[in-house]
Amino acid sequence: MMYDPESWGPLRTSRMGWNADPERFVGWYREASSLDLTHIEWYKALAAYRLACITAYYYERHKTGKRHNPAWDVLGEAFPFLLKKAEKRLLA
User: Fold this and answer.
1) pTM, 2 dp
2) Cα separation values, 9 from 16, 35, 39, 52, Å
């Protein structure tokens, strides 16, 4: 999800001049693993949801001053995009 531009917020999208192809990582995993990846979209949805939860947690800590980190001003805006991406993967 970290390399999927659809999971980024507007600030990060405008600042990132590159991105790794997420499917490239899946391809490498397919080559190295004997696991059945039939339901890979479900696992990608889970990854998006988990990253959204982590993002919400750290963004809240940043905004309340419990753990100041200006990077979360950019990363935090990805929250709704991550949830939308998770939903999209589950409905695919």
Assistant:
1) 0.77
2) 11, 33, 27, 12
